[in-house]
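Dear support,

We are seeing what looks like truncated structure output for some complexes. This example has three components. We would appreciate it if you could run it in full and send us the complete token output so we can diff it against ours.
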Amino acid sequence: MSHALGFATSGIKAAGIRNAEPDNYLTHETSLASWLLTTDHKRIAILYAISITFFFFMGGAAAALMRINLLTPDGAIVAPETYNRLFTWHGVVMVWFFLVPSIPVTLGNFIVPLMLGARDLAFPKINLMSWYLFMIGGTLTTAALFWGGLDTGWTFYTPLSSTYAKGHVVLAAFGIIMAGFSSIATGLNFIISIHRLRAPGMTFYRMPIFLWSIYSASVIYVLATPVLAMLLILLSFETFFRVGIFDPALGGDPLLFQHLFWFYSHPAVYIMILPGMGVVSEIIPAFSRKQLFGYKFVAWCSVSIAVIGFFVWTHHMFVAGVSVFSAIVFSLTSFAVAVPSAIKVFNWIGTMHKGYIHFDAPMIYALGFIALFTIGGLTGLWLATLAADVHLHDTYFVIAHFHFIMVGGMVSAYFAGLHYWWPKITGRMYPEMWGRLAALIIFFGFMLTFAPQFMLGYYGMPRRYATYPPEFQVLNVLSSAGAGVLAVGYLLPLGYLVWSLFRGARAPDNPWGATGLEWQTRSPPPVENFATTPVVTKGPYAYPTPAAVAARTT
Amino acid sequence: MSEAQLHFQYEDLEHQSDTALDGMWLFLAQEVLFFGALFFAWMLNRHFHPLGYHRAAQQTDLLIGSINTVLLITSSAVYAAGVGFIRLDDRRRLVQCCVITALLGLAFLGFKGLEWHEDLAKHMNPGRYFGLSGADAGGAQLFWVFYWVATVLHGVHMAVGIGLVAWLLHRVCKGAYSAAWHTPVEVVGLYWSFVDVVWLVLYPLIYLVGRAG
Amino acid sequence: MRRIVRGAALVWLALAALMAVELGGSLARLGPGFSGLLLLPAAIMVLLVGLCFMRVRESGGLARFFALAAIFWLTVLLGLGSIDPLTRHDYSVDVTQYP
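Here is the complete output from our reference environment:
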């Protein structure tokens, strides 16, 4: 296996052990305290992974109950008040405690220092603090959801949330603020690390795209989240003191709430998708054995998405009462933000063209990502079109749109990255056949769940309703059936990945033959990541050039 | 006498120092957006309730507000001088500057507490028992909501800043800093001056703009 | 030592002068149209503190980049965010009775 990058050889590797387990970050110390007080980015990534997996299944359980309820037009299992609590629970947990942290705190925390050729992130203690903030926030919000739950929807629109809501709005808000501070700390750590801890020879244009994507997402973490924090403080003030900041009956402006809310929450969805795009940008070249097509375009498109994503937030408020002039401006900017995403899709396809494609599980997930993200992204343009949005707003069309991107896209990318870097993180190979099977089940289950929802939205079924007119039943049943398949698809990796920890084949340092500094160290890595600091002399995707590929005979 | 500790992920002390300063600047950028959201709320409400804002601003205590502004400007100047002194290895003068800065900060909070007491006595607490009534009371309440949220949050930031300066004092007295290594002094200075900057924006928003209209 | 004190004092004087300007402008009751102008001396004061006390010019390019980014994003929030309130009519009522 040729080393694509110049690398000062590790003495540990030269010792050539495969049977005697060398010391790695997992075996170095094993007490509980060494885990709970660790500042090792790799261990913090594992702590986060366990946490967000828990939240993922909690949010998924709420979704399962919702889909079961929607099997019949009159609501099969829960009353409307309970249904309101379920979709709020699903949204709050999935957005703030799964999707917003997801790839950056798990794969990002683990892989970013390795990709940089660094020994850790810039501020390891702040990294640990961010996990504790996240757990405190998660505990508080979960408590609020259990103590009677919230019925406001994850969007907390006023005056419902401040004046009429039943439940512990302020407690949940406080938990979300804690989680927000956690994400600001994470983003700050990544930005500073990428600027200051790159290995010698690693210029910005020699960084893997995953680093560009994490950087772009971190910009959003740092600059959008404080606005949400202030908003939730104002909301708590209004709720506690019964004043009318946002409540029109008391002289306030509900649109003020929505402006500040969406100023954060729209860029937040780019927090969710950019790292996923970064993962896909690593996997496509690796499993096509080909250089990434248009590297600089992909890199700067990541940054553009993060920046332009701040200019579009009012597209969530087209029918809320904003001025038509404002709506037109934001409709235009929303069209603009689609362009860099589209450029990336074309570049991924260009990468695969004339490549050697290997359909391992990470690649299947990545291909699923491209298909589902593209569909989701294109339907966003329909929602950005003012006249169409009047009809489609608050219907299942919107739900299908964002689930195609967040679940079909983001969660697939998360699984893709999980499988791709699993050998590096755990030192074990997962069972490939099960991996491919789960990826296919997830893809088909997803399509069955959410494609009917586009139809439902087009026909006018509103979102957040526990009941619906009988003519929508067939599509709803299809969607719920798909949710069942999807559940199986998500439970499978939980099973075989855990199994692989005990019985999986031991992984070599570079099972995929991929480029990147993380593959130049052991699987699992030693505590200090690299025995000596690597030196970078080439670009990030030094797979065979297109000329060499063209000269190939198959 | 303790030397600065070089953390393992850095090449040398200069690398570590630059990184710490960059980290603080980025943190301050985040704080700009935090208070920025509040400024946006101020702007939107002033646009829709200019008369209410005018009426409400009359109730603010311009004297205390102005005194506090002078106190903060002075503290920022003194601390900046302190950073200049430690760069010349003058630990004694750094200690003096830190003490003065902390005292000015405490004076600020003292006057603020006095002002809050006065505001509550006038019933400037938004809500059912608000002290103003009549045509523009709604807009006035919105102004006072901004006032309380902004000044309390700013006060919290000030308290944190005073705590940091006190911690620095403790460290300087133990001989931790010198011309060669004094990055924490600079980092705290950035934070302190930033808290001053926020007040420089809050001062006209609270005391001056409403009065002028 | 003298140089340091003099430098800080000079900036202090400039800040005090600007504060006097904005205080005077407010007390002169120029009217609602001009009240926005009061923020101009405040902006200059912020710039002075940033340049002189926070030494942003001396700091590396990265610190300056972060400072500029903060100002840019604040402008986006306040600027783009103002488009809606400036172009729509507000129908809110003043509170007269509490529920």
